[in-house]
Amino acid sequence: MGAGEFLDLTDPATFVRHEPRDYWQEIRSQHPIYWHDSPGDLPGFWVVTRFSDIQTAYRNAKFLSSARGTVLDVLLHGNDSASGKMLAVTDRPRHQQLRNLMLRAFSPKVLGPVVERVEQRTRSLVASVVDVGTFDFAAEVAEHIPMTTICDLLSIPDGDRAELLRWNKLALSADSEEVDDLDSLIARNDIVSYFMDLAKHRRENPGDDVITMIASTQVDGELLSDEEVALNCYSLILGGDESSRMSAIGGVKALAENPGQWAALRAGVASLDDAVEEVLRWVTPAMHFARTALIDLEIAGQKIRAGDIVTLWNTSANDDETVFPDPRTFDLARKSSKHLTFGHGPHFCVGAFLGRAELRALLSSLAESVRSIELDGNPSRIYSNFLFGYSSLPVNFR
Ligand code: HEM
Question: Which UniProt key words apply to this protein (predicted)?
Answer without folding.
Answer: Heme, Iron, Metal-binding, Monooxygenase, Oxidoreductase
